[in-house]
C-alpha cells in the first residue's frame, strides 16, 4: 500500500514515473494512523518516514482499493497495470469468412481511417489483408513503416521467399508444404507483426483447389482457449513446460536458441503468445513421468489447430499483402511449384 | 526419445530443421526392439510407424544419452539445447578496474581483432568502453551497425539526452540523479545492447569527485549470484514474482507495460536477465502474506547493488562510448548541471 501511493512526491505527475524508492520501504512498515473520509469514499493513511521527517500522507479511493479484492485480478482497471481498451476477438473459419478483415492499399496509405482499420484488425483478429498493393519489393517496407518500425534480422530488412534449388540454408526456399507454425520462435523474441507480400503466383485461372500453394491462417488463441476450457490440465502443461526452439544459421555456422512454452499467459492469466513450429521445437527436458503427458497435450493442441473448421484459407494473388500477429496466428501453405511463386516477408 | 531421433529423415542435415512431426508421435509409443552396438557405445532403437510402413530405426550414442542423466541439466552439451562456448565473467569494482574492458575506436572500426574484442567484452563482462569516438551524432550509429542492427524505438533510431527545461516527457532530460536501473523494461522486450556516447561534458579539469554527472555501472549478475548463494529464498522470490514495469508516453498518451521478474533465469536455472528500474516498477500484485517477503528480497538486492565495492564508476569524457548489456548491467549517474552535458543513446 505504501508503494502504491500516487501523491505528487511519489509519482511524477506528467510522466507517471515513480520517484519513491520501493526498495527502501521497510518491509514491516505499519501506518501511524488512518482516516476514512468523504463518506467512506476515501482512505487517508499516514506513514512513518525515516529520520525526523513528518509522516507521509497517502490517499486511496474506495474504488481503487476495491479492484484488488478479487482474485484472479480480472477486474483491475488501474491503467498502471492493465490496458482497459484492448479487445481481442477469437475466431474460427466461419466467423472470419463472414467478416473478412480486408482493406484497400490506397485507403490504408492515404487515409487515417484506413490506417486505423488496419491496426484494429491486427489487434482484434491478429490478421489483416491488404488488397491492391503495387507489385514491387519496396512496397512491403512502405506498408510496415506506415504502421510502425521494422525489426531488422539476419535476413536484412526484408526476407524474400524465392525458389532456391539448393536449399542448404532454409526449407522456406523450397516448394515443400509448410504446416502450421509461427515464425522465428528461436529468436530472443519472436517478431510481433509479420508482413507477407505476394509478388508472383501461379496463374489464378489454374489455381484450383488442388493447385497447391494455398495459404492458411489459424487463430492460435482460439485453439488455446478451447484447450483451456476442455482440457485445463493439458492447457497447464503447454503453458508451463519450457520448450527449446533452436535453429542453425548454416551460412554463419551459428545456432539461435530460445525457450518458450507453447502457450504463454501473462501475469493475469490472459493469453499472450503462441510459439509453435515443428521445425524448430526440440524435445522438452522433462522428468520421465511427465513426458507422455506433454506429448498428449501437444497432440491435442496440434489436432485442434489442424481442423479445417479453424482454417482461414485462400490463394494469395499478386498484390495481396497479409499482416499477422506472429505470436498469435499460425500460418502455413500447401506444397507448390516453387518457380512460379515469389513472396516477400518482413517483420 | 523418439522425438530426439537425428536421422536424416527426422532432422534435415544442413539446416538441422526438424522434419518429424512431434505432435503426431503416439504418447504411449514403445520400442519394437533395440540393440546395443559397437561395444556398448551405441543404442539402436526400432520404433513402430503408422500404416504399413516398416519400423523406424534411431541411433543414439552412449555419450549423448549420458548427458541427460544428471539433474539439473547442467552437463548438457548437445548444441540443439545449449551454447557450449558462452562464458560469462561476473565482476565487482576491483576486478573490472584491474582489467578494464576498453579499446580504441580506430581498432574497433578498422580491424577484425578490434571488433572481436568489443563483442567479447560485451559477452563476458556485459560492458565495453570505446575511446576516441569522433564527436558527432552519427558515430553511434556507425558503431552499432558494425556490431549488429539497430532496434528502432518510439524515440527514433537514437535518443538524445539533452537538457530540456520542461521535463514533461521524461526525467532523463533533467539533471537529476539517476539511481541504478536497466532501460526500457516496460517494453515487450528490453533492449539487449545499449550504446551511450558522450558528446559534451563538464570541463574535465573541474570534474572532481563532487562535480556530479559521474556514471556508474554494476554487474547485476554478480549481485544476483550473491543473492542466490546467500539468500536462496529471496533469490527465489525475485526470480518468480512477476513485476509490472509501466511507463506513460505522455506525448502520445499511451502506456507501455510489460511484466518481468527482477531476476530472470532460463529453463536451466542460469541467469538470463535483470530488469530493475525504480521509476517504472509497480507494486506487485501479491497475496497479503507474500508482500513483506517481496519487499525484503527487493531491499536486500537493492542494498547489494548500491554498495560501492560493486560500482564501476568514472567520468565520461567527450569521445567515450559505453556499450552495455542492458539486461545485465545496471547503470546510473549522479546529479549534474544539465546544460553542460550532452549524451546520445541507441539500442
From TrEMBL, chains A, B:
GO terms for biological process: carnitine biosynthetic process. The keyword Magnesium does not apply. Gene3D superfamilies: 3.30.2020.30, Clavaminate synthase-like (3.60.130.10). Its cofactor is L-ascorbate; Fe(2+). One of its GO terms (cellular component) is mitochondrion. It is an enzyme of class 1 (oxidoreductase). Residues 102-343 form the TauD/TfdA-like domain. Coiled coil: none annotated. Its EC number is 1.14.11.1. It comes from the Eukaryota. Keywords: Carnitine biosynthesis, Dioxygenase, Iron, Metal-binding, Oxidoreductase. Belongs to the gamma-BBH/TMLD family. This is Trimethyllysine dioxygenase, putative. It comes from Ixodes scapularis.
